[in-house]
């Protein structure tokens, strides 16, 4: 039997990165299967080149996410036949594929409805938003469990205890070549540090002055060099950080915001010594690239969203504030959980877990 399998997980970068261990497990359970994936434009590019995937389809239902909007200006080689702008056009085309099994890794009612319209013989997904009637196998969703582990629970009807693989991205030779050319602009004998200060939600962002102070200390002690990546609209964030720095005219930095695809970002990260990030999709990319990745947490929970990798370190207040974690579901006037996380503490944690030289 060669089952045809469809995986629905369209939206943010981090979600897409965490889907790759799930895909690998599906291929191990069903080695003769053909696996198609429905993802969002831009973030979904991370699935391209995955050896376990047959086809990648793009469903664009987003309205405001800054990374998905601003990166549409970057050229993408996507066939119009593989890109949909509505649920109904997506369902109409994919229904013809006659899938044996559909995994719905999104939690929304609409995503389960999409699976129902596509018409898979088996439809497996979470029991959220009273949508179980649209599924053939309904899986409990645990809001306190890491998101990857929730994904893997969807495989329990077919295999107990699937493997918790590290996410994998497969850059092309051209993407690797471009990354090498850009990295060559750095001094090879000094530490190269990724700074990712932007997030889709402002509450998850660390004060710009703190980033500047941390970079100054890293330059003073280790002559560090810095890489900035992100969407075009993130460029201003790093320009403001540099205005707070005392050594902007001395340390080496490269600001690539809006100049690279997220796949090229991954290829760049593979060549860095470490990453210091806010809770964001790019922190998941850095962790997948295998470099030591330090993630600054305030309103969100590392036990739920920590990037998956061998060298990932959450940085947060040693004692939670009474309002932590709020999961950015409240209006906050102070964001103390990020403001009390001082640059000196972050540097101390870096030096205790990673030898900068």
Description:
This protein has 357 residues and is an alpha/beta fold. Helix content is 33%, strand content 15%. The protein is built from 13 helices and 13 strands. It has helices at 13-29, 66-70, 87-94, 109-118, 147-153, 173-183, 208-222, 235-244, 262-269, 281-288, 302-305, 336-339, 343-353; strands at 4-8, 34-39, 55-59, 83-84, 101-104, 122-126, 137-139, 192-196, 225-228, 253-255, 274-278, 293-296, 312-315. The strands form two sheets. A seven-stranded parallel beta sheet has the order 4-3-2-1-5-6-7, sandwiched between helices. Strands 10-9-8-11-12-13 form a six-stranded parallel beta sheet, sandwiched between helices. Helix 4 links the parallel strand 5 (101-104) and strand 6. Helix 1 (13-29) crosses helix 10 (281-288). Mean pLDDT is 93; it is low at 64-76.
């Amino acid at each position: 039997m060669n089952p045809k399998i469809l995986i629905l997980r369209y939206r943010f970068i981090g979600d897409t990165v965490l889907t790759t261990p799930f895909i690998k497990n599906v291929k191990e359970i069903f080695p003769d299967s053909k696996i198609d994936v429905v993802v969002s434009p831009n973030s979904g590019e991370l699935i391209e080149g995955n050896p376990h995937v047959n086809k990648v389809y793009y469903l664009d239902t987003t309205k405001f996410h800054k990374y998905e909007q601003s990166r549409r200006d970057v050229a993408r080689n996507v066939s119009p036949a593989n890109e949909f702008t509505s649920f109904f056009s997506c369902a109409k085309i994919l229904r013809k594929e006659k899938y044996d099994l559909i995994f719905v890794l999104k939690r929304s009612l609409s995503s389960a409805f999409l699976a129902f319209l596509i018409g898979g013989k088996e439809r497996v997904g979470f029991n959220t938003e009273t949508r179980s009637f649209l599924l053939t196998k309904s899986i409990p969703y645990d809001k306190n469990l890491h998101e990857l582990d929730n994904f893997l629970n969807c495989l329990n009807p077919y295999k107990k205890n699937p493997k918790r693989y590290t996410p994998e991205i497969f850059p092309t030779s051209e993407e690797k070549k471009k990354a090498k050319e850009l990295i060559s602009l750095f001094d090879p004998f000094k530490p190269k540090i990724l700074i990712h200060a932007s997030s889709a939600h402002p509450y998850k962002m660390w004060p710009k002055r703190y980033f500047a102070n941390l970079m100054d200390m890293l330059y003073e002690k280790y002559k560090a060099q810095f890489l900035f990546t992100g969407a075009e609209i993130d460029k201003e964030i790093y320009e403001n950080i540099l205005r707070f720095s005392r050594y902007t005219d001395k340390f080496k930095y490269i600001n690539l915001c809006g100049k690279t695809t997220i796949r090229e970002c991954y290829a760049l990260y593979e060549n860095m010594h470490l990453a210091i990030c806010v809770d964001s999709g790019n922190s998941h990319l850095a962790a997948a690239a295998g470099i030591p990745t330090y993630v600054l947490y305030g309103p969100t929970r590392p036990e739920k969203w920590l990037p998956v990798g061998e060298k990932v370190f959450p940085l947060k207040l040693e004692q939670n504030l009474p309002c932590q974690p709020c999961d950015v579901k409240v209006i906050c006037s102070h964001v103390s959980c990020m403001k009390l996380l001082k640059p000196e503490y972050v540097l101390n944690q870096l030096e205790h877990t990673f030898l900068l030289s």
